[in-house]
Amino acid sequence: MPPLELDSILEGRRSQPHQLIEVLQDVQEKYGYIPEEAMRVISKDLGVPLIDVYSAAVFYKAFTMKPRGKNVVTMCLGTACHVRGAKLLLNQATGQLGIESGETTEDGLFTVEHVNCLGACALGPVVTENGSYHHHMTPGKLRKLIDSLGREKTEDASHA
Amino acid sequence: MIPCLFQDCLAKGCFLNGHINLSIDGKTVICPPGASVLEAAEENGIKIPTLCHHSGLEPFGACRLCLVEDENTGRLMASCVTPAAPDMAVLTASPRVIKHRRNIVRLMMAEHPESCIVCSKGNRCQLRRIAAQLGIGETGLYPMPNYKAYEQANPFMVRDLSKCVLCGKCIRADHELVVAGAIDYSHRGFESRPATVHELPLELSSCTFCGTCLSMCPTGALAPKNNMFVGTPDREIPTVCGFCGVGCSLSMGVFSDTVVEVNPSRGKNTVNGSTLCVRGHFAHDFLNVSQRLTRPLIRRDGQMSPASWDEALDTAATRFLAVQKESGPSSVAFLGSSKCTNEENYLFQKIARVLLKTNSVDNGGYLSGRSALAPLYKRTNGGDRVRSLAGLEKAEAIVVIGADVTETLPVVSYGLKRAAQKGTPLIVIDPRQTGLSAHASMRLPLKPQTDLELINGLSALLVRKKAQNAIFTDHFTKGFEAFKEALLKLDLEKTGRVTGVTPEALDEAAEYLRGKSVAFVVGGGVLEQRYAALTLDALFNLCLMTGSLGHAGAGLYVLAQENNQAGAWDMGTVPDALPGRQPLNDSLAREKFERAWQASISPDRGLDLIRMIEEAEKGNLKALYVMGENPLRALPQPDRVKRALEKLDFIVVQDILKTETTEIADVVLPGAAFSEKGGSFTNLEGRIQFFNPAVPPPGEAKPDWEILDLLARKMGSPRRFGSLERLRGEIAGLVPMYAGINEGSGAVWVVEASDKELFKNEGGARVSFAPVSSIEEEGQSDSYPLTVILGSVRFHLGSGTRTGYSGRVREFHQNGAVELSPQDWTAFGLQAGDSVKLTSAHGSVVRETAKNSALTQGLVFVPEAVHNNDARNLIGLFPLGQPDSPGWKTCPVRLEKL
User: Fold this and answer.
1) What mean pLDDT do residues B118-130 have?
2) Is the pLDDT of residue B886 over 80?
3) Among B651, B656, B652, which residue's Cα sits nearest to residue B702?
4) Which among B53, B116, B792 is positioned nearest to B410, based on CA atoms?
5) What is the ipTM of this complex?
6) Smallest CA–CA separation between A49 and chain B, in Å?
7) What domains does chain B contain, in order, with CATH numbers?
8) R_g of chain B, CA atoms, integer Å
9) For chain A, what are the domain ranges?
10) CB-CB neighbors (< 8 A) of A55 in chain B
11) CATH match for A71-158 among 3.30.365.10, 3.40.50.720, 3.40.390.10, 3.40.30.10
């Protein structure tokens, strides 16, 4: 892992404990997760005990402690999606990629997650892929989506 | 909480003073403003069940069990977080309240494992008690136990978070009381549990194993880990901790005459409140080890063999009297104990002075700087004795100098950290980064043994900034002008050179202190160094100059390493003073005691601890009586001490445990630990705390004061005291500062009797400034290029005799690794796991090594107490310089990689 560069994030926020969430959001944005070392630096520079940084970081779903894949596929398992077969979608994704929900594939291309409601119940079942919403999903559509995302990335790699 | 003054209110008719009256369960009650409904109810004897409330913590409102119903609105409110309001009317047990309360407990029980039968919390489980009170056997709900990994890798506590009800007491104790930052809520919802950072085991977190959370846990989620089945205590007995000088109030859990558990006492206004440290909580298992002495022993033909009390005491008495008669009073000496009670120390020195006519009496407090404090005590002439630790949290600024309190006196460190958390400026003066540094406003990393120069520099800066408290110095002191002149002449560049502290850092520190009355916390780093007495003088000068005396929350807090260090001195177990710290060469004081004791007392100073060893080496000292001390482990140069003491004709050791010293004794008398006898200890605040036995002594062992009482009779004392009350009566009559000792229960304070105006209400003399002294820059010798700093670790006290017998402390694997700076680590080419040999001019130790990135280059930290306290080999055994200062905190060494 390259050395952390947090100066730009911490600039002007040092010794201000109330900036904790904002700093964590920026770190999440920059690295895709909250590295362990980053928590130590944040703790020291903001003057917040390490345990408080950790407690905040694990409380919010917006922060992850592990690096995530290039593509984050998120299933909604809320009530409306559930009754329309969201569980099948989750099975499709985890089966296809060979990982459990919350895990990342070994090649670092995919992370599968589930949430309890995305607030788009009328469109269910809903799946988001890197922030874009796919409505009325079926296992078949999801298979194609994952296939195409996987191809895109391999093509990227072969072009490069 | 503010006490409710119900009776007073009625009597004085002070309803208008803001006191609130409300109705609880139809009964009109009165409570002070700011109290919660729960507090108001409790004060008036109305019980409301709760799991998350604790009087020592901020209200939290997590468990919702303390629901009450507002009669006016019908609303249900958590009473612990609802402030009492005028004309409020609440019901604590209405059918609605009970219905909801039952539902909450049912839900908790549905998540709780069905392991009550084998749970060590047993009948003390608050959840179980409340469930039983509410008649909840079956929850009638689908059980959803939330199994979590059982954590018990450390030897001190077991965490079974399946039983956690998320009351948050452990987390709040960690954050609000001990400020360790080890645990917090982790995750949320059903997943939520108290956890360490990255859910690591406790031993890898910042947890100090103080056990405060464990004593508060309402369920079996946190429990002490015992190496064997010990049973659930059948009674709890209050007592006072026998380890460090803080003197925490304990509650000993006793099961069939064995202490099986220790918790902070629930008493009010105790030193420690609801906190303890790892020693107080867990190291008391030394009380039950097989190495306890249970019967008197006499050496016969080189072998120790059991004897009757009569025989042992007869031997001790006749041999001592014979030696004294043959070789004179200077041939016998008495080593008393800073761990034994006031009553015992009084009796001990009385035996020495009256029956054997010798002033050669000392105690282990000598090792931790008692002699360096004596000149300061003389300067205040007996004032400034009483200083409550609670005051520290009210200080305007705090300076901690030479005190690694998180390790030596953890309970003091909690107060300091709480103060820092509230924003009190905290300056740490220490060559090493200590556990307090992270909480401090700043640290001044000075070179070892240069504290004197630093304090003078700080005083000089404050004078230059005209930041002295002129009203104070004008009113209470004399000699300020001369002191000021001397300071103005001080070369601050030299200060920087000698101490290694930059002028900017010193200036920043002075700014923190400007215009404030300051609390100075002084520890072993100052008391045990070469310039101890001079540094204390300089610190006291700074106290006077800043007006930091005479009121709570400021002044000189001198830390005592051992529980009755102050008391042993007060009781005269010292070579140069009578009980009450009355100087031996004061003929008025002497006459008073001569009259009372009907004996003549020599005005000549006796042998102190070091001189006892020297005289034994020379063959001039022939008999030694040791009570509750282990000089063969605690003194520098243990081998030399052993050789010296083996030369003695006769040595009696009265102790509770088999120690290095009992091995060479001619007579061993088994005494009782503090939990097995009555008595009193005087803590570092000047608080005399009384205690009664919790359990009987093991086997034939006897309380030490009884042994001394019997011995005195055998040595020719006309009559026995026979009871603690009579002993205390004599002390109260002869020692004005202990006038309160007749009280016999709870706690009383030492009576200050100074002639200085500062410590009296009016009139009296002024306190003078001590001359400004200075030290020279010291170069490092080529043959010993590194400097060792000896220091304590949290798990042990002093030389570690008692704590070393604690199975749990031993199991925690303290390898006593010496710590080196990263620069030295690299320079010596060390790898993890390497051992090194440290050699000083006096001896050497072999230890494993550890890299400490916070250590300055050239410094080596060597933990004491471990490995039979072999660190004592490094320092020399020599008489103290004048003024008496030990100078064995640091020593130059060279390092060889093995």
Assistant:
1) 88
2) no
3) B656
4) B792
5) 0.81
6) 6
7) 9-93 (3.10.20.740), 114-284 (3.30.70.20), 300-367+564-749 (3.40.50.740), 388-552 (3.40.228.10), 786-897 (2.40.40.20)
8) 29
9) 7-59, 71-158
10) 184-186
11) 3.40.30.10
